[in-house]
Amino acid sequence: MLHAMADETLLQMARPKGTKDPRGFVLIVDMDGMGAWHMSPRLVKAFAAVSRIDEAHYPDTVAHIFVVNAPWIFQALFVLIRPFLNEDTLTKIHFSSEVPDELLWHLGADCLPTELGGSRAEVFPYALDALPSRHPELSP
């Protein structure tokens, strides 16, 4: 439910100035801190549910998915979640054990948090008190 609410909100928001890729959302999954203890059947079930919601209600809204700071254990997790992704989505996924320069090229420094090589400060979840109201250009 929360995921669908986030998707609906993103669809209604104005795109930030400096956005380079107009084809859809760019999802960044920062895996920093992921470990073996995160591997569980519940995680795979949750991912499968979110994937079904996206395919049914938000098809082709993602331009790119960047999985950054991915530890070696992520390879095992990806084997488990890959069956829930369609071929088109698989072509949009970019994996890296660090933050790739390609991410900055696709998003632009103004849209990327400083923690990931951009110039945007106070971005949730890196700054837990960052709220959309602090960035009026992102309000619907």
The end-to-end span amounts to: 20 Å
Quote the beta fraction.
Answer: 5-15%
Given the helix and strand composition, which structural class is it? alpha/beta
What would the average pLDDT be, to the nearest integer?
78
The CATH H-level superfamily of the domain at 21-107 is CRAL-TRIO lipid binding domain
Helix content: 25-40%
Rg of Cα set: 15 Å
Largest sheet: 3 strands, parallel
Instruction: Give the CATH architecture of the domain at 21-107.
Output: 3-Layer(aba) Sandwich
The string of secondary-structure elements, in order, is: HEHEHHEH
CATH class of the domain at 21-107: Alpha Beta
- Count of beta strands: 3
Give the uncertain stretches in residue-range form: none
What does this 3D model show about the protein?
This protein is of the alpha/beta class and 140 residues long. The protein has a domain at 21-107: 3-Layer(aba) Sandwich (Phosphatidylinositol Transfer Protein Sec14p). It has helices at 2-12, 41-57, 73-81, 87-90, 101-107, and strands at 25-30, 62-68, 93-95. Strand 1 (25-30), helix 2 and strand 2 (62-68) form a beta-alpha-beta unit. The radius of gyration is 15 Å and the shape is globular.
